[in-house]
UniProtKB/TrEMBL annotation:
GO terms for molecular function: 3-beta-hydroxysteroid dehydrogenase [NAD(P)+]/C4-decarboxylase activity. Pfam families: 3Beta_HSD (PF01073). The chain crosses the membrane at residues 359-381. This is 3-beta hydroxysteroid dehydrogenase/isomerase domain-containing protein.
Amino acid sequence: MLLSIYLIRLNQLMSGTPDEVKKLSPNRWTKDLLLEAYKSLEANPITTSSYAQRIPPQLSRRYIVTGGSGLVGGYIVLQLLERGQPPDSIRIVDFRAPNRDDMAHGAAKEVDFVQTDISSAESTAKGFMKPWSPRHSHLPLTVFHTAAVIVPSDRHELERGFCEAVNVGGTQHVVNAARRVGADVFVSTTSASISIRRVRFWMAPWKMWSGWPSNFWQVLDDSDFSLTLRRHREFYANYPASKAAAERIVCNSHTETFRTGCIRPANGVYGNPTDNTVGGPLSMRDCPTWTSHIVQSFVHGANVALAHLDFEAILASPESVSSSQAGRPFVITDPNPPITYDDLYFLLKTLAITPFRTIILQPVVLLLVSYVIEWYALLLIKWPAFRRVLPPLTGDVKHLKPAIFSICTHLVASNSVASRPVSLGGLGFSGVFTTLEGMTQEIVEWNRVHQAVAGRENHNYQTSVALADEIQKATRPAETA
């Protein structure tokens, strides 16, 4: 009976929102607001040409974009082209070729692509050393490093090899290759999840009636960067631990001839049907969730890309070597207060032409199940002989582990530092999409694609988490060898 009371109370807390967080997100999206935004964006979508004046001016440089087929990297390529960069002065270095609809036509189709596995030093070097057009081979080189794998659910050190190989080893390979070919500006995408602390749900019973689980709501900032890198177990999962290590590699590489910096997008990034935040739920007819009440900051991929170009505009000057911006990270989010997942779900139910509904689950039940799933996954790793008789975990269930609950809590970010003028140590950043505009426009595009689909069946898009699973399968034989 006491255990039941404890679990019921914990479930109440996990389903609640502290007053401090409510004050940061006081207004909910309404049907009229969503319909008005949809009508406006359907008639006048926000495109790279519509915000061309916001993109920093063209520079006479060459560009390598690792991960240029993805969400942030793809927007960097599109913005470079919009400001007049010749397609043959840009190179995408990625595991797969671009498959985004907005990169399947026009100048984006002319951008060079080199298939690369950045976890391999040899493959990375090959992608960077490919000869350039004689028209551009003499120009200085900027590298935008956006390639990474996102595995937010694994936290045990036995499971860290994949993230370490791509996010840490891959970043070192990219830095080494960039230096070898003479790059002098290097801007990397890391993650605001670096600053997230593990949430301590299992609290003392006598504290449950007057407080919340430890770290149940957190501010996403860069204050941790001035401190010693935390130990692995102090991160909520392997993914943020790997991104933090990669960030230190990039920032510690800063020199007069190799000027570096990092952008930390807030949790989570969206802006294309391949994203996990909007595209992931849209691909489901029924979306199980326990996070409707959760308040979080989100950021559109185009806003993140603009921050990279803002950073490059500063680092392109050799004098920036001693600037306060160089060799450090900046957190980026949309220019509005955080929203709730219920706002997102209401948007999908209201605007999407494909069926969508949420199935509300009890968080404490899933938390308990997550420990069983993690135990099962570790069993197959520790004792490989069990793989002969026990099936591997597949699909979404493999990601339901305790770590996932630390990023399904209240997370609030701010552009206050990045938005400062350059003269005051900021990037002069300003976003072109609010979260309402960005998510609504993604639905506009989703509906356009699905208008002609018989029965309005969901078009198949591959999210970044699903891509990480594919990459892991593809590279596992090499790791075993």
